[in-house]
Design goal:
Blueprint: E1 4-6, H1 9-16, H2 20-44, H3 48-51, E2 56-58, H4 61-67, H5 92-111, H6 115-131, H7 136-139, H8 143-149, H9 154-174, H10 179-199, H11 209-217, H12 220-228, H13 235-252, E3 257-258, E4 263-264, H14 271-289
Parallel strand pairs: 1-2
Antiparallel strand pairs: 3-4
């Protein structure tokens, strides 16, 4: 796997400064990128071996979290992973997944103006990054110092986080370890969805948040493919993959959902479906963050 892409933070920064229509536009851009990749793959008639070089288009942790950030619910620290867990994960797989989890928690804190907690979660991200051999992300510039100096200035903090994402992308690309980006994304996606679903006061058919939830579900195919292509895939990783696959299977078997074309009929998605999605996301998240 040579090219796992994250959509740029520029889109997210624009999203955060605008209203709900832009939120819909942002989700549409993600879907358009996914469709382009699918069409390119079909046009080129890629072989099974060539498909392993698939260009994964994935949003950043901040993009995922920001999609659910304007639905009126108050910040709740209980939705985040415990800071005391950061040094308790043993395998590289769980460390990378929880690096994504803590990154989403950091985004959640920043978007809700939780200054002190944001610093604590940035420390957690820094510690676990160093633990998986990605210390260069923070050594490439005074990211941590800039973060502390600008705490309380939400816009400045978001731009600093954009730099952090850029440094992460550069690191995995230069070290030819882009597969790590998918592991991190898988954790960030699970946490972002978990927080969004827990935080939603109106998780019911017709609510504005429902299309955002459904659109995020269309990322599961590429997410699972990226995990399957991990060069060190083992039984532990298979356990996580099976959880994501179970969620994908459930979603794509809902009447009116067609993941092949990224199309879905919201009128067919009931409150029962939404509650089951919420439960299955919670199971994935629990599998990732639980310390054995």
């Amino acid at each position: 796997m040579k090219n796992i892409k994250t959509l740029t933070f520029i889109l997210t920064l624009f999203l955060l400064g605008c209203g709900g229509n832009t939120e819909k536009s942002e989700s549409s851009k993600i879907q358009e990128e996914l469709k382009k990749d699918l069409e390119k793959q079909e046009e080129n008639g890629l072989s099974e071996e060539e498909e392993e070089e698939f260009d994964f288009v994935m949003p950043s942790a901040l993009q995922i979290t920001s999609i659910f950030s304007r639905h009126g619910s108050e910040f709740n620290k209980e939705y985040t992973n415990k800071l005391s867990n950061v040094n308790r994960y043993l395998s590289k797989e769980t460390k990378l997944l929880n690096l994504g989890v803590y990154t989403s928690d950091l985004c959640y804190c920043v978007l809700n103006n939780q200054s002190q907690l944001s610093i604590e979660f940035l420390k957690a991200v820094k510690n676990i990054s160093e633990d998986v051999g990605m210390a260069q992300i923070f050594s490439s510039g005074p990211i941590f110092e800039r973060f502390e100096a600008n705490i309380g200035n939400r816009d400045s903090i978001i731009f600093i986080m954009a730099d952090l994402q850029e440094q992460t992308d550069l690191y995995v690309k230069r070290s030819d370890q882009e597969h790590l980006a998918m592991m991190i994304f898988a954790g960030a996606w699970a946490e972002g969805m978990y927080i969004g679903l827990q935080d939603a006061k109106n998780l019911e058919v017709g609510a504005d948040i429902v299309p955002r939830v459904v659109e995020q579900m269309t990322l599961l195919g590429n997410l699972i493919k990226g995990l399957e292509l991990q060069p060190t895939k083992n039984n532990e990783l298979d356990k996580f993959i099976s959880k994501y696959q179970d969620l994908k299977d459930y979603f794509e078997n809902i009447e009116g959902v067609d993941l092949e074309t990224f199309e879905y009929d919201l009128s067919k998605i009931t409150n029962v479906h939404l509650e089951e999605i919420k439960n299955k996301v919670g199971e994935i998240r629990a599998e990732i963050v639980t310390v054995n």
